[in-house]
Amino acid sequence: MIEKSVSRRSVLAASLAATLSIGLAACGSRPSEKAASDTDKPLVIGISLPLTGDFSQPGTEAKRGYEVWADQINKAGGLLGRQVQLKIVDDASNQDTVVSDYTKLITQDKVDLLLGTFSSLLNYAASAVAEKNQMVFVEPAGGAPNMFTRGFKYLFFAQPATAPHQADVFVDWIKSLPEDQKPKTAAYPTQDDPFAAPVIESMQKQLEALGVQTVYQSTYPADTTNFQAVAQQMAAKKPDLIAQGAVFEDGVGLVRSLKQLQYSPKIMFQTSAPSNAGQYSSGVGVGSTEGVFYTVSWHQDAKTPKNAEFVTDYKAKFENADPAEDAADAYAAAEVLAAGVTAVGAVDQAKIADWLHANEVTTILGPLSWEATGEPKGKFLLGQWQSGKAQVVAPAEAATTQNVVNPKPDWK
Amino acid sequence: MAQFVQALALGVLIGGIYALMASGLTLIFGVLRIVNIAQGAFLILVATFTWWLWRATGLDPILASVITAPLMFGLGWVLYRFVISRIRGQAASMSVLLTFGLALVIEGVLNIVTGNRFRSATPAYFEESFRLGDILLPKAQVYGFLAAVAVLGGLYLVLTRTWTGRAIRATSQNPSAAALVGIGATATAALAFALGSASAGVGGSILSVLYPFFPASHYDWISRLLGIVVLGGMGSLPGALCGALILGLAETLTATYGSLQWSTLVFYLVIMVVLLVRPQGLFGARLREDAA
């Protein structure tokens, strides 16, 4: 009896699988028919994104960013007079799947253009497929240094800067201070994280060159929860500036410990923890956010071209949700690709790449331009918490306020 | 000198709280021979519930353990009777799989119900400190430590002074002999699991004030607790206390006189050395099957 039902089930499964594979084969064969670049046909952009798995959260945001861009450009008449169609597939956050996805998009679906996926891990593999097929690959995320040591010609990173240059805008602000307000001593605790540690290391080097004396430096592992000893050591050295490479809970943990040990530095900088708006302010207490600096690639209220439209359309499309930085980065990547295509006036991959190497593109993240390796030459935004709200204080053209809180008031 | 005393004080405070969190794990192992991988998830579950209660009613998070401990006692008892008891007598690996599954279910449910974001309860005193001369003692840590000491003391009294407690210890020392003198194996096991869960009820409430947490934080906590329990000797309550104090002091002193980067490593080095000299842990009893 049991055997019988099992065999019936497996027959059913087999026939289902057969039907599915025929269906899939049919799907796969259709787009390849349109090889001719007929102006009536839509311009197809192939994208693979981590819509499930580890990176599903940022992956889904990136998808939304791309979709908002496609809606806008189609409403405005399309790209080169053709409607844009996004062909988005899911790579399940898997490096092998992302390679086969992009290979299939290029060789079988014969998409006209590509846009990048999410995270350095996935873009590292995906960009190699694009490079081999000589197709322009603009990625919204993927700033790991080894992305740009491979001599790729078709790779472009659509964020203002890679990790080692993320804090440049903060160093510039320190340089701009009158001599008596510049910090004399600094402490640099950082999490051992590929996107936190390089920011702090580079900042420390630049500030030491400016004559800021380092009184404390330490790297801690990702699972550290107990920050009292670190806070205690820093409090004993009384640095003017504390700059922490903070992912999130470590940023909250250190601020709390500093408050408990009653030490408040004149200037406080944290890499990404303060950009998680509500979660950060509820973790440290709204009063204590006052004056804390951080850097970020995008801000909702930044006065960059088209940013307001992006935010409005995103909210309208997605139930009034606030767009995440990841969605804005994806939108900017699409803007970069579109600028190249429009300037060249044709889908000519080599010419688009050449044009992007030679020109600056205006995006919602601000102006972007690239080294020959695809590494961006720009700067991040300098954010600061003021009266319970995250503001942009530099650079001037993107600032949401002219006011800078300095020195930081005591913790509240 | 002040710095040393300060580091020592912080280490002892945090060690006491670690001890409470680890006590449930070691109690459950002692009686049931089950490594409850879900103990970390219990902590996060309680912390989330405490946070919610604090937000909704303003009830002090550490006091909330008066509510969370009985709730977790009940949950532990139900879980034992309907889930855990079904794998009694099977290989230890089964219990690891089952409780790990339980941890994943709790994490998943928290993700869906409460969302994947960081939380932490911030009552008025969470960032204040008591000052003793040059030494600063964070209030949240002090209250958490006092609650932990009270619960551990209570647990000790129950285990040594009551018939039920003696039954639990007897079952932990020799299950067959305990059964021979009339101790019900299932009832005692359910009680031990429920008590172990209840200690996570208090531990989780304290955690909600001391550290930001999110559904997947339980991995960090269970690895820390397992380290403590292995160092102290699986199943030994004084062992858990001792292991927890060593971890708290190792973390704080290494971070003060060396670097925070080394603090985890130092703790595991201590574990390795202890296990080389005493494979059963500091207070662990050597079982006959270990010697064979």
List keywords for this structure.
heterodimer; A: 412 residues; alpha/beta; Rossmann fold; 4-stranded parallel β-sheet; 3-stranded parallel β-sheet; 12 helices; elongated; disordered N terminus; B: 292 residues; mainly alpha; two-stranded antiparallel ribbon; 3% strand; globular; TAT_signal (chain A); Leu_Ile_Val-bd (chain A); BCAA_transport (chain A); Amino acid ABC transporter substrate-binding protein (chain A)
Task: Please provide a written account of the structure.
The complex is a heterodimer of chains A (412) and B (292). Chain A has 412 residues and is α/β, with parallel strands linked by helices. Chain A is built from 12 helices and 14 strands. Chain A has helices spanning 2-29, 56-75, 95-107, 120-132, 168-176, 197-209, 228-237, 249-260, 277-284, 307-317, 325-344, 349-358; strands at 43-49, 84-90, 113-114, 137-139, 155-157, 185-191, 213-220, 241-244, 267-270, 293-296, 361-363, 366-368, 381-386, 389-394. Chain A has a 4-stranded parallel β-sheet with strand order 7-6-8-9, with helices on both faces. In chain A, strands 2-1-3 form a 3-stranded parallel β-sheet, sandwiched between helices. Chain A starts with a helix and ends in an 18-residue tail after the last strand. The model of chain A is unreliable at 1-37 (pLDDT under 50). Chain B has helices at residues 2-32, 39-57, 65-82, 92-114, 139-161, 163-173, 175-180, 185-210, 218-232, 237-257, 260-277, 288-291, and strands at 129-132, 135-138. Chain B has one domain. Chain B is globular and about 60 Å long. Chain B is mostly helical and 292 residues long. The chains are: A alpha/beta (412), B mainly alpha (292). The A-B interface holds A 57, 189, 192, 218-221, 223-226, 228-230, 232-233, 236, 248-249, 252-253, 256-257, 259-262, 276, 279, 282-283, 285, 288, 411 and B 3, 6-7, 10, 14, 116-120, 122, 126-129, 136, 138, 140-141, 211-214, 220, 223, 251-256, 259-261, 263-264. Chain B: InterPro entries: ABC_transp_permease (IPR001851), BCAA_transport_permease (IPR052157). Chain B: Pfam families: BPD_transp_2. Chain B: The chain crosses the membrane at residues 7-31, 37-54, 61-80, 92-113, 140-160, 180-213, 225-247, 259-277. Chain B: Belongs to the binding-protein-dependent transport system permease family. LivHM subfamily.
